[in-house]
Amino acid sequence: MGAGVEWAAHCCLLLDWLGNDEAVSTARLAAGFEIPPAYLNKQLQALVRAGILTSVPGARGGFRLDRPLRKITLMDVVAAIEGPDEAFECTEIRQRGPGVDTPKRLFRRPCAVDAAMRSAELQWRRALAARTLADLRDTVDRSAPDLGEQLRDWYVHN
Amino acid sequence: MGAGVEWAAHCCLLLDWLGNDEAVSTARLAAGFEIPPAYLNKQLQALVRAGILTSVPGARGGFRLDRPLRKITLMDVVAAIEGPDEAFECTEIRQRGPGVDTPKRLFRRPCAVDAAMRSAELQWRRALAARTLADLRDTVDRSAPDLGEQLRDWYVHN
DNA sequence: GTCGAATTACTCGGATATATAATGTCCGAGTCGGGCAGG
DNA sequence: CCTGCCCGACTCGGACATTATATATCCGAGTAATTCGAC
Question: Chain A partners of B109 at a C-beta cutoff of 8 Å?
Fold first, then answer.
């Protein structure tokens, strides 16, 4: 899985901690995490296309959350960055080759390997969809209540 | 996820259907699935390293199941091909950058994003580990009882 | 006809190319804020 | 002093390199079967 997923999740959390009143530019976000700004910009664009963030062009522009963290799941973030395709893709290998010259009567049922893989991946997706970014923020806030304020303080001066 | 996972799973099932009395060469397996033989060989080597198959060198050589399908889970196959690493890898991005100059007191707890990702991936692994290849074989056998015999017939002549 | 050794054909195993995707960089279009001239 | 316009700086957005990974290929080491000859 690409590193952009981690970047995107932490950026969304940070945008919430900083308050959603004004947009934050790619440069400042990247400086806060010490990651390549232009590449981060690319990931943020993906979040915009997915409807998670909104982009404000021009000077003093940047990105802002399009909906509260409560309505953004980890699944949304992963899907936005990694794309909608499933990790395992069945190519119907069982039907290929001259091994079975019988008609496709035997292959009406879906491929058993594919079914098992899809089932497992569905569990994964369910778990991701069950966790909203608000849950994560609250978890962090409980273990470090003053983190948000410290972040705001630093970003004010940068 | 690489295509090798699909190949490996189907090859294991096929080896069982053909009976495990004699080894089957890479060339014959690849011919049955219409996939590049040399590349399939690479994946099978990974299965050997993982202890799922045993390789028989020399003429009339090939591969054979090292244990019954009942003792091989889909998780074993995936781990053998894709490697043992987790898909999501936390780089502790939260601690990077000058944004937080406080000591690491705030970061004793594990990263919340990482925890959620690991939890979801654990669900995925559990689901894969719960399905043995014997389960899949039985599923196919129920929907197509004579598939195994047809496969044996064809492979006898090739 | 039987035994035995050299030969041959075949297979795995890993080292080596190529294609594809992930990562990283760069420049142009657009927009806001501030400066500046005019009234 | 106030207003409106122009200029400059800043930012997103997508097009363009670079690196890593997955895919595909090739050749050597080794083994079993086969063949050939001698007894």
Answer: 140, 143-144
**Residue for token digits 């069950």?**
A130
Q: How far is CA A124 from the centre of its chain?
A: 14
B100·A151 Cβ contact <8 A: yes
Question: pTM score > 0.85 for this model?
Answer: yes
Q: Please give the structure tokens belonging to residue A118.
A: 């899809």
Q: Does A95 touch chain B (CB under 8 A)?
A: no
Quick: pLDDT tens for B31-89.
999 999 999 999 999 999 999 999 999 889 999 999 999 999 999 999 999 999 999 99
A122 closest CA partner among A83, A87, A72: A87
Which bases of strand C have any atom within 7 Å of the beta carbon of a protein residue? 9-15, 22-27, 29-33
pLDDT digit string, tens, across residues B84-109: 999 999 999 998 866 566 666 667 78
Helix axes A112-130, B4-17, angle to 10 degrees: 140
Which nucleotide lies closest to B1 by the C1' atom and the CA atom?
Answer: D22
Strand partners, A56: A62
* D11 C1' to B79 CA distance, Å: 44
